[in-house]
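Quick one before lunch.
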Amino acid sequence: MDKVNVKKAEGKLGVLVVGLGAVTTTFMTGVLMARKGLAKPVGAMTQYDKIRVGKGADKKYLKYDEIVSIAKLDDIVFGAWDVYPENAYESAINCEVLKEKDINPVKDELEKIVPMKAAFDKNFAKRLEGNNVKDCKNRWDMTEQLREDIRNFKKENGVDRVVVLWAASTEVYVPINEKVHYTLADLEAAMKADDKENIAPSMCYAYAALAEGAPFIMGAPNTTVDIPAMWEMAEKTKLPIAGKDFKTGQTLVKSGFAPIIGTRCLGLAGWFSTNILGNRDGLVLDEPANFRTKEVSKLSTLESILVPEEQPDLYTDYYHKVRINYYPPRNDNKEGWDNIDIFGWMGYPMQIKIDFLCRDSILAAPLCLDLVLLSDLAARAGRWGTQRFLSFFLKSPMHDYTKNEVPVNHLFQQYVILKNAIREMGGYEADQEID
Ligand SMILES: NC(=O)c1ccc[n+]([C@@H]2O[C@H](COP(=O)([O-])OP(=O)(O)OC[C@H]3O[C@@H](n4cnc5c(N)ncnc54)[C@H](O)[C@@H]3O)[C@@H](O)[C@H]2O)c1
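Model of the nicotinamide-adenine-dinucleotide complex:
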């Protein structure tokens, strides 16, 4: 097979993160600690996973960077925006995800990461009070200011490649409006007309990133790049986009567990998922309009794995409910509890209970690293538009809903897509062999 022309990951890689809260500071601290050999990047596929290449007697298992050029942790330079002015060290301490002993060895480096002023509108996250916010004439000006930030960051740090990752709070739900979100021309016109209702600040970040040659990843459930106008922008700029919503705890379990029910042809009567968490993410999600964005994302997972139209006897009318409850004593240590009502032979009911006592940011940090490194890889490989191979990392994978395309939510199918993309970019044949 012809080798795909993938540019080498040479020089530094700028990683600009929107939001310098729990997830981001855990991600940054872990990368900086791993660089010093003081922590292991556990959970990051790009650092650990091995993919089989070749078949039969020729097969071998290689790490991603043995198959294709991937940026090294040492080459990453971090920057961020946030509504609050605290630097990454202060924020990491305040978030209380990591112990001080795991933060202090990289204190100097974290202190240098001072957030740039945020592109923010309180109507999109009412519970945030910070004042490290840009003064913008309108949404177009907001975008222009963000573009300037990206250009300055590149210049000051001597980086040619930048990836922009949204790990900021979930914005209120922005319903897709065909008059604004379907074409790039309409989107730009709405930004210029300062359409505050339809243009979320996150859209300004995404537009600015793409306009400045940076792939954009949406780690929250916001619809930001999941609109045809942004697909057009990604096509115009020939850049990758990925989203939405990091698949960390409960939905990871769901997308891995639902296939057990589906594969074994058991029936599903209902699936009730509840969460308690007490970090700032939980506080923002306690606001119904912000929770709505998350709910839409979390609910979408089951529908394409256990499909009523395909198996009416087994999956018609199952009741799927997702709840998130703000409960401060738990801070970042979320409890995700699932009650699954299934039925078997002759319709007899059974129950499965899963109680995942997890740590939200500990699960999200490796996803940030993988999404950033693999989006940079995709850009160097000349792949643009929605990166379906990154669905593995996302709760609500982007797909072309205007053409009724069905997203792949099944964790193991997503893994096959991921492996094949890495194989192809490395010049190996994509295949469906069992490993
Ligand atoms: N941790 C997980 O398991 C997980 C999983 C999926 C998605 N997420 C999403 O990741 C995001 C980050 O989570 P977190 O726990 O770090 O939250 P957090 O509240 O600790 O941090 C988010 C930060 O974003 C900042 N922010 C909000 N709007 C901004 C804007 N317009 N520009 C710049 N900064 C802005 C806030 O001030 C805050 O400091 C949330 O949207 C969350 O829903 C997290």
